[in-house]
Amino acid sequence: MKKVKVRGKYVFLSLVFLVLGFMLSYSYQFAKVENEQRLKEQQWTREYQYKQMLIDQEQANIKLQKELATKQANVRKVEEKLAKQEQVLFNLVEDVEKLRMYTGKIKVKGKGIEVTLSDSSYIPTEENVNNYIVHENHVFNVVNELLIAGASAVSINGQRLTKESYVACNGPVITIDGNQFPAPFVISAIGDPDVLYPALNIAGGVKDQLVEDHVVVKISKQDAIEMSPVIGSEAR
Q: Nearest Cα to 114, choosing from 228, 227, 231, 235?
């Protein structure tokens, strides 16, 4: 009977250890599963937070891009306005320079043409000598044609013409702004030679009319013509 009790004790202890092992194993597995689930939840939470942060950042970027586009549009408007103002100012300065040039206020130089008008070398004895010399109307016709063709500055025998200039004929000489000049009369014009030259040589034009009036006409293109400002004007 004593041996049976010992064995029973071992059996009981074995059962206790078995149950205890099972409980430990179950607790371990439960803790493991719970830990894994907690890790998954933490990972999901972090991923959700990161995604939310990314979404917030993208929305902030979109907002900033819109603000940048608006500011760039405003800058372009300001630049266009400034460009227009600069263009207007440039045009005004250019117009002032042209007016100064036309009024003889500044020294000018450039390409152009030179027209020489001379009295006829042959005057029949029975003819009136006035019909074979250069008169102011001949000079007027040449000057007007040159200005119409785009000449920016004109001079006669070195005398710069302005909007206030006057030309008068007095026998064999011509008076320009109070200064007398004898023939030949050299009319210089600054402008595009390829425009001014043909303008005077049109069939039936100024040159043909001058020749018909017995005026000797010589026209040549010039690479460099220089005109001083009118005396008393602003020089450069």
A: 227
